[in-house]
Design brief:
Elements: E1 6-7, E2 17-20, E3 23-26, E4 41-45, E5 50-57, E6 67-75, E7 78-87, E8 90-98, E9 108-114, E10 126-133, E11 136-142, E12 149-156, H1 162-165, E13 172-178
Antiparallel strand pairs: 1-4, 2-3, 4-13, 5-10, 6-7, 6-13, 7-8, 8-9, 10-11, 11-12
């Protein structure tokens, strides 16, 4: 079982994940941004202003709009996504942000790069890393462990603060898997 520090958004009818062979398998689910559904998200409260969060992701998006990866979330209207997404039939690594309810539900793309795995499958992980320093965020990825490539640096992440986004919990960072409608 995951420890008590892990949380989801709203109350899922069933656990959105399983633990298998030392890894977390997150079932595909609804997207963040629709308060009538429970997104497939499991995260932890960001406890420090300076932090690094990383994961190894094995995932291939089946349909345009499907995506999985890391999310830094303040609310359904204020979150940042970093991970693998299918867009126009291609697998891409995307950093996107939804800063207000007026932004598109999946957010606005801040940076992206085509994801070209050597073997073309999700068998090999993509490593994702978010580096947070106060209100500034960096996103890096690796196709081989510890061979990091910067996707974005110096991203203004102050929109995730309770001062700008509202709320009271603070930013929650975790794993996310969205199946497009």
């Amino acid at each position: 079982k995951l420890g008590l520090g892990w949380m989801s958004v709203r109350i899922p009818a069933t656990e959105p994940y399983t633990l298998e062979h030392g890894g977390l398998v997150l079932k595909a689910g609804e997207g963040i941004g629709d308060i009538h559904h429970v997104p497939a998200f499991i995260g932890r409260k960001q406890a420090h202003a300076v932090a690094t969060v990383s994961t190894a992701l094995r995932y291939t998006a089946d349909h345009d709009g499907d995506r999985a990866g890391l999310v830094a979330m303040q609310s359904d209207d204020a979150y940042l996504f970093f991970g693998v997404q299918r867009a126009r039939g291609r697998q891409v690594l995307t950093l996107s942000a939804r800063k207000t309810a007026q932004d598109p539900r999946q957010g606005r793309v801040l940076a992206s790069v085509p994801l070209a795995r050597q073997d073309g499958s999700a068998a090999r992980p993509v490593y994702l890393k978010l580096s947070i320093d106060g209100g500034v965020l960096g996103a890096a990825y690796a196709l081989r462990k510890d061979q990091w490539n910067s996707l974005a640096a110096g991203v203004d992440a102050t929109f995730l603060s309770t001062k700008l986004a509202g709320g009271f919990v603070g930013t929650v960072i975790g794993l996310y898997n969205e199946q497009a409608p």
